[in-house]
Write a structure and sequence with these properties.
Blueprint (H helix, E strand, L loop, with lengths): L1 H12 L28 H17 L1 E3 L2 E3 L6 E2 L1 H17 L12 H7 L4 E10 L4 H9 L2 H8 L5 E7 L4 E9 L1
Parallel strand pairs: 3-5
Antiparallel strand pairs: 1-2, 4-6, 5-6
């Protein structure tokens, strides 16, 4: 009986494969994603997904164009990584654009994060501290709204840097 208890305690004490740190399942365990593993705003990123899927289920009007209801999106770890990397980079280097100062585009980041896409898109936002306010901003912009409502996408990744109120949504469909 003592041996069994000892084994359980030993297994509980083990973390990830690095000797103790737990593995963050929200992004792939790759060098590209390592700087954004363990972000503290995962709940807000997940809230964005919930609101996105509510809009997709209800249908929407984007810039005067009626958009039919479409299936929900799935949060994909590689896309979450790409969104987080971009959001963190915009904050760290002080820019706000889909193309980073090195010329890297959204689809470049998606591929570096391990996502092979057939369709891809990106929304960025700044200045809102809540998921609701950020989604309102995107849904009131025709282009951002069309990305959210596009039937071409099946997957999403969301990145958020809370201290800077900076957000990125990355949309894709796998190849």
């Amino acid at each position: 009986m003592k041996l069994r208890a000892l084994v359980v305690l030993t297994l509980i004490g083990c973390g990830g494969d690095d000797g103790g740190a737990p593995i963050d399942p929200s992004v792939p365990a790759t060098p590209y994603c390592a700087p954004v593993a363990g972000f503290t705003s995962t709940a807000l990123e997940d809230e964005i997904l919930t609101i996105v899927n509510q809009h997709r289920a209800a249908g929407a009007t984007c810039g005067g164009q009626a958009m039919a209801a479409v299936p929900p999106l799935t949060m994909v770890p590689s896309l979450r990584c790409a969104a987080r990397v971009h959001t963190k980079d915009m904050v760290d280097r002080g820019y706000f654009d889909h193309t980073n100062p090195d010329g890297e585009q959204p689809w470049d980041r998606m591929e570096r994060a391990g996502y092979t896409w057939s369709s891809a898109g990106e929304n960025i936002a700044a200045g809102n501290g809540t998921a609701v306010a950020t989604m309102d901003q995107w849904m009131n912009s025709a282009g951002h709204c069309r990305n959210i409502m596009s039937p071409d996408y099946t997957d999403i990744g969301v990145g958020h840097v809370e201290a800077a109120a900076m957000w990125t949504q990355v949309f894709g469909a796998p190849r």
